Amino acid sequence: MRLNTRTDKRIHLDTTYDILIIGAGPIGLAAGLEARKAGLSYLIVEKGCLVNSIYNYPLNMTFFSTADRLEIGGIPFPSIHAKPTRAEAMEYYRRVADKFELNINLFEEVQHLEPIGEQYHISTNKGSYVARHVVVAVGFYGIPNLLHVPGENQPKVRHYYFDPHYYYRQKVVVVGANNSAADAALETWRKGADVTMVIRQPELGSIKYWTKPDLENRIKAGEIKTYFNASLTEVREREVDIQTPEGKLTLENDFVIAMTGYQPDFSFLERIGIKLTEDDKRHPQYHPETMETNLPNVYLAGVICGGMDTHVWFIENSREHAVKIVQHIVQEEKVAQV
């Protein structure tokens, strides 16, 4: 390793990793575990903190899945709850990383990927690396789906919801129909907010079975005002406009919590050369048996595989991607040695 004095970045070109893994979420960690088990050299590079997406979940979030379905590398996930919490998940993945001393660089963002012969030169904001294989295991929680309405750029509009206490005695509009919107509406209402939900559909969407009846009862009782078949059309400093089937409605408002979902960083995939479909789904190209993309020896793992279909892949059904990828790499190494 040497120091580039012009950019003050550390250059690691004297070490060639078998695998460089982009993303230290559960699936990126699973890929590291599989590489370690196979005796391959690897490095995990993460632009945020460990399991960054889970860290950005709401403070009191409970997973829909049971703990055993969130396990990686065959390591038991103990939980005192039927459904584990955000805090338990972060503790579990920290313990996994520590127990196996996983090789992880945090707060380091990959900026460029360049093929050099049969290897890849990976540039980050902190250094440069060489690897024979690359696994892209980034999530989709970093880029929110925008409302595209006037006033959306105001500080009062939040695309991430964390702690309900912040909204005590505030007039809050929650946009969305699914789990995140339901949690935000119920939790802020319980902490003393005046909550109005704005939902494009004629009914509530996909909501956890233990949450949906609670929200339905709050709506029926008039405790959480709800407008179906409606949309938020403008945000101003002290009020918002909502288009309802009966016409435009203007409400006093302090905060808008837009739980409209998130999307992968398609520009990053395109920048490194991974092909995407040109339709609205933006599905990245990869082989489902090996997870290899159109770029030789570059693989996809986790929710990124679904493109805009962000409700297809989860921790529980994509952790096997790590197994497929490492098995394919090991098999190719064996063939190359014959």
TrEMBL record:
Swiss-Prot/TrEMBL keywords: Flavoprotein, Oxidoreductase
Pfam families xrefs: Pyr_redox_3 (PF13738)
Superkingdom in the source lineage: Bacteria
TM stretches of this protein: none
GO molecular function, one term: oxidoreductase activity
Name the record gives this protein: Thioredoxin reductase (NADPH)
Species whose genome carries this gene: Pontibacter akesuensis
